[in-house]
Amino acid sequence: MDKPKIFISHNEKNIKPTHYACKIINLICCVPVIAEAQPKLSRDIPSLVKDSIDSCDAVVFIFTPD
After folding, report:
1. Backbone angles phi, psi at 42, to 5 degrees
2. Has residue 38 got a pLDDT over 80?
3. DSSP assignment, residue 28?
4. pLDDT, average across residues 46-61
5. Coil, strand, or helix at residue 43?
6. Which pLDDT does position 50 carry in this prediction?
7. In angstroms, rounded to a whole number, what is the distance separating the alpha carbons of residues 47 and 15?
8. pTM of this prediction?
9. Within 10 A of 6 (CB to CB), how many other CB atoms are there?
10. Cβ–Cβ contacts within 10 Å for residue 21, how many?
11. Is 28 a residue whose pLDDT tops 90?
């Protein structure tokens, strides 16, 4: 069985919390998915984000004061 995938929605300014979330997601035996880290395959950013979210089992939003 494949590990569950968790999409991480974040902002460029909150990269430290995003990396921390990736560590936690890995610790719970899931796969973190960040759209920008996925192969582009000639897709624009909105399509890349939508495809990444559609491939996941859950979504985490990173909110910071930034």
Report:
1. 60, 25
2. no
3. T
4. 93
5. coil
6. 92
7. 22
8. 0.84
9. 20
10. 19
11. yes
